[in-house]
Amino acid sequence: MRRLLVTVASIAALVVPGVWSSPVALASVGDVTFTNKTTLDGLGNDRTYGVFAAGGTVYAATSAGLSISTDGGASFTNKTTGSGLGDNQVNGVYVAGGTIYVATGGGLSISTDGGASFINKTTTSGLADNYVYCVYASGDTIYAGTSSGLSISTDGGTSFTTKTAIANGLGDDYVYGVFAAGGVIYAATNAGLSISADGGTSFTNKTTISGLGDNVVNGVFAGGGVIYAATFAGLSISTDGAASFINKPVGSGFGNDSAYSVYASGATVYVGTASGLSISTDSGTSFTNYTTTSGLGNDTVPGVYADDSTIYAATAGGLGISHSFAAVGSDVPVAPMQAYGRGADGKCDSNAPSWVNWSGVADKQYAAWVTSWQWWPNNGTGGYVCVRQPYYTTSNAWAVQ
User: Fold this and answer.
1) What is the H or E stretch that residue 166 is in?
2) Largest CA distance in the chain
């Protein structure tokens, strides 16, 4: 199979529906502006604590329910205890495999029908505590951070076992954030970042001695060999498996040293702080801070999430949404179109080869492919192919379409 890379100048001749057909350019991060969503748009409450988005659906954790939008954030429907939530205080939300996991003040609520109904898990199911701060899931494994330890389920939430400071080495039993990747569990605790490589049986705790800005860790994210810890004294970053951390304080462009949340995609890092949303496009070397002057509902940002073209900021005054588009200008980081021969199954959404994962879109291997026809397959006699166009956005990040 031949690997075809078509230059941007040749895109128009391909007549591929949905492919970006003009040069794209680098734009200033100052172009980022937000539209704020409130109770007027259907949110349960303007005070939001967390946000997640998947497949065009947006989920906002509020102090009065879980608000769900199926139109990209234009309008929301609010879910409460009447739908089965454990409590209307929603601290966090995560979605995986079509299942919604909601961290509430009265248990971990799970929905498999798009939020129409929820089943609530409590201490009777093995949770350490009914007050759940955070949740993360991968496959049948669910991680719930509580005020009494990290509860882990390996059977889809039927039962849980709890990991604690005394028994398993957590820094503290208060777990404010959790993330898992590559067989490693990261727990943001009240006394350090606790890391386990054996499924939670034992943890190694990282503190200011290892370079963390503060021992109170509010959130954690890991990807591309980098660990990000949001602390009360800045964002701490490790590139050596948590052996050491470099801390980014206010002087790095942060709005405030109190970092509440963190999310990263490629070289772009998003940090929710007590004084705005701080964004870095150079892997955390420097940041630009966005506040109410950029459209945020409040400068306190407890949660943040981003996908290919949209940034979501959960604030104390609403949910801020920023849509980024292809940037234009003369200083264009141009990307060639990507194409590969379509397989016998006729699919373009699940069989993309690994060579398409160049650095800008390494996390988007299966995204945005569409069917086309070109001459190069089958020894030049033509055939069907899968194509897409990477482009640079006004948020200084790569997207594909």
Assistant:
1) helix 165-168
2) 68
Q: Tell me the DSSP string of 178-204.
A: EEEETTEEEEEETTEEEEESSTTS--E
- Give per-residue pLDDT as tens, 46-83: 999 999 998 789 999 999 999 999 998 999 999 999 99
| pTM of the predicted protein model | 0.78
* List of domains in the chain: 4-25+328-400 (no CATH), 31-323 (2.130.10.10)
Per the CB < 8 A criterion, the answer to whether 162 and 173 are in contact is no
The Cα 366–Cα 326 span in angstroms is 20
Q: Reduced to 3 states, what is the DSSP secondary structure of residue 39?
A: helix
pLDDT over 80 at 391, yes or no: no
β-sheet bridge partners, residue 330: none
Question: Tokens 């067989």 label which residue?
Answer: 183
The pair of structure tokens assigned to 343 is: 């397989």
Residue 160 has pLDDT above 50, yes or no: yes
Encoded tokens for 192: 């350090």
